[in-house]
Amino acid sequence: MEKEVGRKMNVRSPQTNLAFQKLFGLPPEEFLINDFTCHLKRKMPLQGRLFLSARIIGFHTNLFGHQTKFFFLWEDIEDIQIVPPTLSSMGSPIIVMTLRPGRGMDAQHGAKTKEDGRLKFRFQSFVSFNIAHRTIMALWKARSLSPEQRVQIIEESEAKSIQTDESSSLGLDDVSMSEVYASALSVPVSFFMEVFSGGILDHRVMEKAGCLNYFYTPWESEKGDVYERHIRYKFDKNISCYRGEVTSTQQRSTLSDKNGWLVEEVMTLHGIPLGDNFNLHLRYQIEDLPPKSKRCMVRVYFGITWLKSTTNQKRITKNIMKNMQDRLKTIFCVVEREFAAR
């Protein structure tokens, strides 16, 4: 059945399908139809990627070196509902999938809740929510149809219009990071870390950087001394003519061998062309300089993970890096001015 459907649909390259099959331990006849950046909602949102085939729906993330993956069958799903945006979903509609009693137990570590033996999975913050929802509903409705009927309903949902480069990647490799900014700032570490506190300095920095409707969750312990929070904001029109939106996951921990902090961030861009094709990675390394100097050394590393290949990747990467460097300069200048004004 999958092979017959595959001949009539925009199937990924053999390399991408092989990586998909290997990731979830699937048979050779399983093919990838589409995949989407989103957040899995458990106790806290987990940024990752949702993979759709004719038979299964799978989720995978490798965030800050911690890997989570699971899948379940379309036929295991009893109901799919859309929940309107809430404060906890950071303004994003939520797709809630409820499995039949006793089904999908191998994937229960990804479930938000378990009620009467039914697992509930919550997915939110899709870059292309309408396309993702339309494709998901088409595949679920087609789960018991013949191959011909399955192709027809998916085509009617316009899923066939989603064009993906044949060399697209699942983005499973560790991202390569390069230093894009380094500066000794005339502020102590404790003051600089207020940039990530959710307080006055945090809001002021985001405002000056052209970030509107800034929303953040409190820092919560992820494991040991590692803390995590999620942020969301929109770009000012002076920053982006598309006025896109950003969802971001940040992790904060102390440096192991130095007096300072490490802040890592994974960003997803919404509402801009090709936003579903990549994730941005930032790493802030903040080290305390001699106490009497009241200064700190800040190094920022940047990387980009291409989830789907596209033309002009080098030019896009260069433009993003230039914009990121300009933004960092603005942030650091604001921090120093605010400290001097105290």
From TrEMBL:
PANTHER family: BNAA05G37250D PROTEIN (PTHR46296), OS06G0297800 PROTEIN (PTHR46296:SF8). Residues 176-342 form the VASt domain. Keywords: Membrane. Its main location: membrane. This is VASt domain-containing protein. GO terms for cellular component: membrane. It is found in: Membrane. The keyword Transmembrane helix does not apply. It comes from Carya illinoinensis. Signal peptide: none annotated. The keyword Membrane applies.
